[in-house]
Amino acid sequence: MALLSINELPENILLEVFTHVPACQLLRYRPVCSLWRDLIDVATLWKRKCLREGFITEDWDEPVADWKIFFFLCSLRRNLLRNPCAEENMMSWRIDSNGGHRWKVESIPGDHGTSFPDPRVKKYFVTSFESCLKSQLVDLKAEGYWKELMDTVRPDITVTDWFAARADCGCIYTIRVQLLSADYIVLASFEPPPVTIEQWSDARWTEVSHTFSDYPPGVRYVLFQHGGKDTQYWAGWYGPRVTNSSIVISPKMTRNAAPSTTQPETT
Description:
By secondary structure, the chain is α+β, with helices and mostly antiparallel strands. It folds into two domains: 8-76, Monooxygenase (Up-down Bundle), CATH 1.20.1280; 94-249, Galactose-binding domain-like (Jelly Rolls), CATH 2.60.120. Helix content is 19%, strand content 28%. The chain is built from six helices and eleven strands. It has helices at residues 11-19, 23-29, 34-40, 43-53, 67-76, 147-153; strands at 94-98, 104-107, 123-126, 132-139, 156-164, 171-180, 186-190, 195-197, 206-212, 221-230, 241-250. It is elongated.
């Protein structure tokens, strides 16, 4: 019996086979022949893989400029900050200033505090009576975001943070997020004015969020820094409380965007 080549299968069957192959392996198979290259580049394949992985639903009607890039961005999508909710004490955070009685970790709700909107968040970082700042520097290449993707597609980068005061003490909260080049040059920045919370506030948790879109090419790092101090200069930990911070990179939804020509890295 003569052996048949897989390429003799109808294209729709071969396409269905590729739907079940891990994405990184597909990219390695792309140079095998022109048929495989063309099928692996077909938008239908990557839309099917998005559906199979649960990134979209059957009734999805949002425009997608490049389904392959959309798939990889969805696959990579996660919080790039480590230990965002203080479950590992101060691990993964660089302490930039440690004034007063220094940074501390406490359990929600804490003294004169309130419950967090998400019951899964159990702890927070708290500051003291002099400036307390901490930061993380995220290396995008190390997290899987190759340079052509960041320079050509420039996916949305959304940063969020949550802060609260004690009801019995005022405080000042600050946040600064910068997109940096390979040489640590600031290409875009989010640095709103400090937030002052008056004494005897309701101590509710407040979310701050910002999305970087259409930033310049060359972004290789994201610097996230936050903190603050109390306004009464009381001994102890009466400054702003922070938790559930995040940096998330997501596909950009643009109706008129042209498909990208960048290819995901296979190494």
